[in-house]
Design goal:
two-stranded antiparallel sheet, alpha/beta, 326 residues
Length: 326
C-alpha cells in the first residue's frame, strides 16, 4: 500500500490537491444540514483546539527562508481556513521578517484575519540574537530586538511570542541557565507593558534538554514566561538526543502552547517518529486544554498532505480521548 493511501481513504486527497485554490464552494443545503451539528458542537467545548503553525508551509510562503512559493504571509490566514478548516494561526517571523514594525502591513494582516474569522495566536521569533548571550550588551540588544515582535503580537491579537533560550554552549549548564533566565526576565518585563507572554520552545542546544529548560522557567519566576513544548525538537547536538516523552512531560507544567511536530506517517495514519496517543496523554494529564499547533516538517508528503494527515490524527485522538478526559 502506498504511503498516501490512508489520506485518499480519509477523503483528504481532494482537499490537498486543491490547496492553492482561491475559494471554497458552499451549499445552502449542506449549511442547513450542518446547523444542528454546529449547535451541538458549540454546547460541548472540544478537548483541545487545533491551530496551524506557518512553518508547516514555509516552502510555500514567498520570502520565508528564501522560498519563492505561490503565496505570501498575507495569504496564510485564508489558506489555513479555506484549505484546512483551521481558524487559528501561529506566524513565523522569518516569513515577514522586515515587517515587524510596518504598521500598514500589520493592519492589512489584521484586517485579513478579521475578514476570514481567523485568530492570531503567536509569532515564532528567530534570528534576533541570543537572549542568553554572555555579553551583557549583546544580550540587551537581543532583548530589544524582540520588542517590535511583542508590539506586533499585541496589535494582531496574539497571546504570545515564541523565543529561543540560546546561550554560549562552551559555558556550564548552570551558567547558560542563569544567562537565559536573565534575558527572558527582561523580555517578560517588556511583555508586561503589552499583555504578551514570552514562551520558549525546545529548539536545539540545551533548550532541548527538558530539565535544563524547566530549570530556566523556575529561575525566571515571572508569570509571563512559559514553554511551547515541541513533540520533536529534542536533538541537543550531534547524535545526542533527549527523550521526547520525558522532555514534554517536564515542560508541560509551564506550557502556554503546544507544537504537534510531525514528519512521517504509516499507512494507518499514525505518526512514525512520535506516539501521538502517548504524547497527547502527557499533554492532557498536565491539565492543558488549549491550542495544539500543527507543525508538519516531513519530506515524504507534500506540505498540504502532511498538514492534513496531522490534523486527521489529532482529530481522531481528540474524539477517542474525549470521554476519558471529560
Amino acid at each position: 500500500m502506498e504511503r498516501r493511501t490512508f489520506i485518499k481513504h480519509a477523503g483528504l486527497w481532494t482537499a490537498g490537491a486543491a490547496l492553492w485554490t482561491t475559494g471554497c464552494a458552499d451549499s445552502s443545503d449542506s449549511q442547513a444540514d450542518a446547523a444542528p451539528q454546529a449547535s451541538a458542537s458549540a454546547a460541548a467545548a472540544p478537548l483541545f483546539q487545533i491551530s496551524l503553525a506557518e512553518w508547516s508551509l514555509h516552502k510555500s510562503v514567498r520570502g520565508c527562508v528564501g522560498s519563492d512559493g505561490p503565496f505570501t504571509n498575507l495569504d496564510f490566514p485564508r489558506v489555513a481556513r479555506e484549505q484546512f478548516g483551521i481558524d487559528a494561526v501561529e506566524y513565523v517571523n522569518g516569513c515577514f521578517f522586515d515587517k515587524g514594525n510596518d504598521m500598514p502591513y500589520l493592519q492589512e494582516l489584521k484586517n485579513i484575519c478579521d475578514n476570514e474569522g481567523v485568530t492570531s495566536l503567536l509569532i515564532m521569533c528567530d534570528r534576533e540574537g541570543q537572549l542568553g548571550d554572555p555579553d551583557d550588551a549583546r544580550r540587551t540588544q537581543a532583548v530589544e530586538n524582540h520588542h517590535k515582535w511583542v508590539e506586533a503580537a499585541k496589535f494582531l491579537g496574539c497571546h504570545s511570542i515564541r523565543v529561543n533560550a540560546g546561550s554560549d554552549s562552551s559555558l556550564s549548564f548552570e551558567e547558560q541557565q542563569r544567562l537565559a533566565a536573565d534575558g527572558l526576565r527582561r523580555l517578560c518585563e517588556f511583555g508586561d507593558e503589552h499583555d504578551i507572554e514570552v514562551i520558549v520552545e525546545n529548539h536545539g542546544g540545551l533548550s532541548s534538554n527538558g530539565a535544563w529548560l524547566a530549570g530556566v522557567m523556575a529561575m525566571v519566576d515571572h508569570p509571563r514566561v512559559g514553554t511551547l513544548p515541541d513533540f520533536g525538537n529534542f536533538r541537543i547536538q550531534g547524535d545526542e538526543w533527549y527523550d521526547r516523552y520525558t522532555g514534554v512531560g517536564e515542560l508541560m507544567p509551564y506550557a502556554k502552547a503546544v507544537s504537534a511536530k510531525s514528519n512521517d506517517f504509516d499507512d494507518d495514519g499514525n505518526c512514525i517518529e512520535t506516539d501521538y496517543d502517548r504524547m497527547m496523554r502527557i499533554v492532557l494529564d498536565a491539565g492543558y486544554r488549549g491550542y495544539v499547533g500543527i507543525e508538519y516538517e516531513g519530506q515524504n508528503l507534500s506540505e498540504a498532505d502532511g498538514i492534513l494527515a496531522t490534523k486527521a490524527l489529532l482529530d481522531r485522538l481528540r474524539d477517542e480521548l474525549a470521554d476519558e478526559y471529560s
